[in-house]
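Workshop exercise sheet. Pairs work together: one partner reads the sequence aloud, the other fills in the structure field after running the prediction. Swap roles for the next sheet.
Pair: D.N. / O.F.
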Amino acid sequence: MKDDSASYFDSQEFIDLLDMYENMLSDGGSVYFDSMDIANIAEYYTLSGDLDKSDAAVEYGLNLHPSDPDILIAKASNLLLRGRKDEAAVIAESISDPDNQELLYLKGEIAIASDDPDTADAFFTQAVELSDHDPGMFNDIIVKFMDNRYFELCQKWLDMALVMSPDSRNFIELQADLYFDTGQSESAIEWYNHLLDEFAYDTYYWEQLGRIYYEKNDFPKAKECFEFIEAIEPENSQAHMMKAGCLFSMEEWNDAFKIYRSLLDKDKNSYTLLYYCGRCLYEQCIYDEALEYLNGSREMLMLDQDVPQELYTELYYVMASCHFKNGNTQQARTFLYEGLAIDPEDQDLQELAQQILPEEEAKLFITNKN
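Structure field:
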């Protein structure tokens, strides 16, 4: 089922098969299907993110073919996706088919879910050997180890895959992603650039490069990467946001504000965009207008129960500073105290307290909180 599954699901053969199955469901009838056909239908629904439909296909298939290995493997895979690894393991152990590559792959997945990567590696090795070293299975194994952060095993399998298929775009991309995930930025840059030499219009590679340069605080190079994405996809809002972040970090406040403001037109209730609009104006000493955006951000923040408290601290610092710069000392004190109530050890708020509060009050407050 793993061999060329994506291309098979796009084939007319599978489209006709799926239509026949769904028409049967809508008509309320009963049609005979081969066990592998049902297993493929179940896998298609799983890959499409519809586990309920996949489960229904599995149960229909088991009514037609009780104890069929391929359908049972599909059932166990769905249980594993639902976090029910013990039930999946019981089904896997009940299948007597030692040369079934899909069963061995499933056992490897169960081992990973049980935090046993070495056992998973052994099962995967057997599965690949039975598959005649199928590149699709190599891909699945590499991604599985990468997703679960078993990076050494991931590199081991990538080394084998790249020896087998040194020009594979897929494996080269996975190697670049592994370097990215493990913080090997220079190697990641080299491999993404290698991909861009041939696939210059793939925005994913530009985005990854941009993120690397951003993390390295090389904001001009990061901005250039996001500008390439904008040229390829003018409506890519994520690229606009990241470019604005580069400009913000470069203290190009007005240019950053223009981008944040244009994004806000499309997402008027974004407390993040409201905050950054206000912050850019604050840095340009446009305090009244900055407070309009910052007040809006605060209103939106209070509607979200999952907002980290440090976001409030940062917001209250800027709001207190705006009011202080405007000569509204009482308002400044109000937001200063709200921020300090959340994080009394915040250095920016401590320094602002020394500016806003009378000397003795500030000294007493800071002494007590430290």
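Discussion prompt: The longest helix spans residues 309-325. What would you look at next?
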